[in-house]
Write a structure and sequence with these properties.
The chain has one domain: Lysozyme-like (3-Layer(aba) Sandwich), CATH 3.40.80.10. The chain has seven helices and six strands. The chain has a six-stranded mixed β-sheet with strand order 1-4-3-5-2-6. The radius of gyration is 16 Å and the shape is globular.
């Protein structure tokens, strides 16, 4: 196994971030007809804002805890007894990027911050698995950089799901939930993976 510093060097050395190296696919997108009213009702309950519209101020990164495309993010209709189902904005698997929801529509991807965040899922079983998926990390960096530019989001507002799950407003000022404000203990996508992705963004 290559040491982490060598993997990071190899990632940084490959000139993939510039230009149109990746494309965003929409062939697995959720239907918005039912999603919009349901996520507006969800937003009212959890954030006191009855709207499906999203004006992104931050980005949250995740891994899927699996090695195949997470169809539940496209097909689920409820989660924990509440509509709508789970859905992030983007899923990345290798060099493939799918837009599940437009970044102007609220997702249900990270409890406590769906009213402010674009959520990005990377297909990987765990942090160690993700650290070996160079194409996925590079595609994520490309996508995050694109979103940062489009929505004027600074790098310090790119959070891990672990950061958000602390529900600590000193750590993540945007977190809020009116139903349950307690921490909920996520670990994705891993501290080293966050460092790698941010290093790739800075290197562009």
């Amino acid at each position: 196994m290559k040491p982490r510093w060598l993997l990071l060097f190899l990632l940084l050395a490959a000139p993939v971030l510039a230009g149109d190296a990746f494309t965003i696919r929409t062939d697995r997108a959720r239907s918005l007809e039912a999603w919009k009213p349901q996520i507006a009702a969800y937003s009212q309950r959890h954030y006191g804002e009855s709207t499906w519209e999203l004006e992104p101020t931050c980005i949250v990164l995740h891994y899927t805890a699996g090695t195949r495309f997470p169809w539940n993010l496209v097909n689920s209709r409820s989660f924990a007894g509440e509509k709508p189902g789970l859905a992030s904005h983007y899923v990345i698997d290798g060099a493939a990027i799918w837009e599940i929801l437009p970044p102007t529509v609220r997702s249900r991807g990270a409890y406590g911050i769906n009213h402010r965040a674009v959520n990005i899922e990377m297909v990987a079983a765990n942090a160690a698995d993700l650290s070996r998926r160079a194409a996925t990390l590079r595609a994520c960096a490309w996508l995050v950089k694109r979103l940062m530019t489009e929505y004027s989001i600074p790098l310090q507002k790119v959070y891990s799901h672990q950061d958000v799950s602390s529900m600590d407003r000193r750590r993540v000022p945007e977190v809020l939930d009116r139903v349950n404000p307690d921490p909920y203990g996520k670990s994705d996508p891993g501290a080293q993976n966050m460092k790698t992705i941010k290093a790739l963004i800075r290197s562009e």
